[in-house]
Design brief:
Layout: H1 2-19, H2 22-42, E1 50-56, H3 61-71, E2 76-81, H4 85-93, E3 99-103, H5 107-112, E4 117-124, H6 128-151, E5 161-168, H7 175-206, H8 209-214, H9 219-247, H10 257-281, H11 285-302, H12 314-320, H13 324-336, H14 342-371
Parallel strand pairs: 1-2, 1-3, 4-5
Antiparallel strand pairs: 3-4
Helix pairs in contact: 2-11, 3-6, 7-9, 7-10, 7-11, 7-13, 10-13, 10-14, 13-14
């Protein structure tokens, strides 16, 4: 009994200290349910609702039946109709679609004269999981459409519809070509966020922040001096990741490396701003870690780095559009795999620039108030 009399006050004291730190208490209590919910809803490897664009050059009952067979499944969501294969590819280049169906003008004639109807299917191979699912589902639908045509009385030897798939950008559908560019974005996000937040909090814990406040250094000079090393470290790690990807894993890189580095600066501004924001509301390194996890975990799970956005519920998909990493991954994979230029990426760049500028200015203002 005497042992419990000695231990119980210590337990009570620890609970009191935890309650007195509401930030730490909130992080501890909320982090686990957030992880479970994100993993439960976002970690879905079944690819469905693939954004699909259709170029129906035949425009008759047979082609409409084929298109209807695509729209009645949960694998394909037709997001638009265009006039030809070039427009289909343009929409895939812009990221507006993941697959495209091109039905030639003589499709109905070939079906009616007992010849095989040929249909071209263009698939974005930058995400191997989506590409393989689209390829499998399209072949299954073509066979089903052929069986339906035979039941309708057309004397067509199976298979009545021949798909001619073309996997764009990543024809071998190597997953490493998809993952390495994503890891570059994650490295930038992680390094700039964690290191910047820790640098300021560490100064506060050691009591050296007050010494910097009373020094002749101006707030903006202190801010610049704090973030510059982490900018250089982040770019160094990006260079290491890119070099390993190219030389060791032999990933495809079809775009401009200079453009990639320039647009990485735009993303880095927002990440540094988030790091500063975390530092202004954290009093200890433990709090900085917990708050950083609240930012990094959704970024990893909901940005499309691992799991396709099409699989996620509407609410999580809406949240993903608020994450800067979502747009930066499109830029990374667009440049590396598709070889896209700024004319295809300007919308993502504009959103990143606005987000980065707003967050960085808010964080810098809070940082200066902290020093005051």
């Amino acid at each position: 009994m005497r042992m419990f009399d000695r231990i119980l006050p210590i337990i009570r004291k620890e609970f009191i200290q935890i309650v007195r730190e509401p930030r730490t208490l909130a992080m501890v209590l909320l982090l686990t349910p957030m992880q479970v919910l994100l993993l439960g809803y976002a970690a879905n490897t079944d690819v469905k609702h693939i954004r699909t664009v259709v170029a129906d050059e035949s425009r008759d009952q047979s082609s409409r039946n084929l298109v209807r067979s695509f729209t009645t499944t949960e694998y394909f969501d037709v997001v638009g109709y265009v006039d030809g294969a070039e427009q289909v590819r343009d929409m895939i280049d812009r990221g507006d679609a993941k697959a495209g169906v091109v039905i030639p003008p003589d499709f109905a004639r070939d079906m009616a004269t007992s010849r095989t109807g040929q249909v071209q299917v263009l698939i974005d191979g930058s995400d191997p999981n989506v590409a393989s699912t689209a390829l499998f589902a399209a072949n299954a639908l073509a066979q089903a459409a052929a069986s339906q045509a035979q039941r309708a009385g057309l004397a067509i030897p199976p298979p009545a519809i021949e798909l001619r798939p073309q996997v764009l950008y990543n024809p071998d559908m190597r997953s490493v070509n998809f993952m390495i560019p994503g890891l570059i974005g994650l490295v930038l996000q992680f390094q700039s966020l964690i290191l910047t937040a820790f640098a300021v909090v560490r100064e506060r814990e050691r009591g050296t922040l007050e010494q910097l406040i009373v020094s002749p250094v101006k707030p903006w000079e202190l801010l610049l001096g704090k973030i510059t090393p982490f900018v250089l470290i982040s770019f160094w790690n990006v260079g290491v990741a890119t070099t390993l990807g190219l030389l060791w894993f032999h990933i495809e890189f079809n775009g401009s490396l200079l453009l990639l580095l320039a647009l990485s600066v735009v993303f880095l501004v927002g990440s540094l701003g988030l790091g500063l924001l975390v530092s202004t509301v954290s009093h200890t390194q433990t709090q900085a870690i917990q708050m950083s996890m609240f930012i990094l975990l959704p970024a990893i799970m909901l940005s499309g780095m691992i799991f396709p956005l099409e699989n996620m519920p509407a609410l999580l998909r809406a949240i993903s559009y608020l994450l800067p990493l979502t747009y930066f991954l499109r830029i990374l994979r667009g440049i590396a795999l598709k070889g896209l230029g700024i004319e295809y990426l300007w919308s993502e760049v504009a959103l990143l620039a606005v987000f980065g500028l707003v967050v960085f200015l808010i964080s810098a203002r809070r940082f200066q108030k902290t020093l005051a």
